[in-house]
Amino acid sequence: MPNRVTAVYQLDSSQKAIEVAARVIRAGGLVAFPTETVYGLGANAADADAVAKIYAAKQRALNDPLIVHCAPPDFMDEGVFDWRERIGNRAPLVLQGLAQQGIVGALSMAQRRRADALIGSFWPGPLTLVLPRGARIPHNVTAGLETVAVRMPAHPVALQLIRLSGVAIAAPSANRFGHVSPTLAQHVLDDLDGRIDVLLDGGPTPIGVESTVVDLTTPQPAILRPGGLGREEIEHAVGKLAAGAARGSEDAGQSSPGLLSKHYAPRAALRVAADTAEMLRLHTEIAARGQRAGLLLTAEQVAACAGLEPQFILGAGLADVARNLYAGLRALDDDGVDVILIGAVEPAGIGEAIADRLRRGAAEGGAQAEGRHSRGSGNP
After folding, report:
1. Closest to 230 measured CA to CA, from 87, 88, 67, 352
2. What is d(CA 109, CA 223) in angstroms, rounded to the nearest whole number?
3. For a FRET experiment, which of 106, 270, 272, 306 has its CA 20 to 30 Å from that of 50?
4. Would the pTM of this model clear 0.90, i.e. be above it?
């Protein structure tokens, strides 16, 4: 695709930059913007030609669907909604608004009841719901399926962009397909500079991993992609979920983004060690082969790994690890290491999302521990 000049706006107290970005969305262009999870790459969700530009810019597989981002009806109309508020008992109005906009289709009573419970408890927030597709959503948003993934982001910039655009925004993560998701504006530029129209720089994203995707079109709700909202919280709202997370076919249309076996991958090979002792053993083996290993460490691992460079400190708890994981992977890639080592994470709470990203990032089919490889083709 031809190169263009990507306009970068540092966000301040004014909304002029967001107004410019909204005009780009309405005109069929591409805007990268911060959410509470990662940076998204947005286009008008009802414009099939604009959506096609997302796939071209990211070099994204056409069988990998996009998430449609919406804003509360009262926020869209009056701009009075506080983005930190939960929707609460206004959830039926939100669902009604999504239906009226042609974003979601007809829901069964069970789907509506579960959607009301989850929207009321967790929107705006890092929760995506898979629901029947509405008539105004093009099939290239949904990978040809009759379901659509919808969420309401908990970030003031994202919500203002939706409000000022006057349309729902389809947005995967703002990176090359298959590559590590962006949590800083610089990460977006590293992957997409010259391939998109506008980048809104809102600083680091606070959660750092993508939203949790829950399928409400199946008899028992199921997590398709673990993310920023934990399984336990969701089950408290709607009851027991189907066990495990989904695994998508590599060729068919995916029911959710993030299901391909190889995903979220750095350029270097990623190895997940069972514990610190195995990490040190692997580091020694890699050095003996004449290669460089970088370490992603929690605060409690720093002393045991003193003197081993390069290393990136993720933080003290799982929330810190999630927030800093993608930045750490990118930083060690930029340092030119052959292999990135990280310890395994207990798959509970947000740890389920971290473990999922590490498993997909370390999967065969791209990176190998024997050497560096070319940059992946990028995904949300």
Report:
1. 352
2. 20
3. 106
4. yes
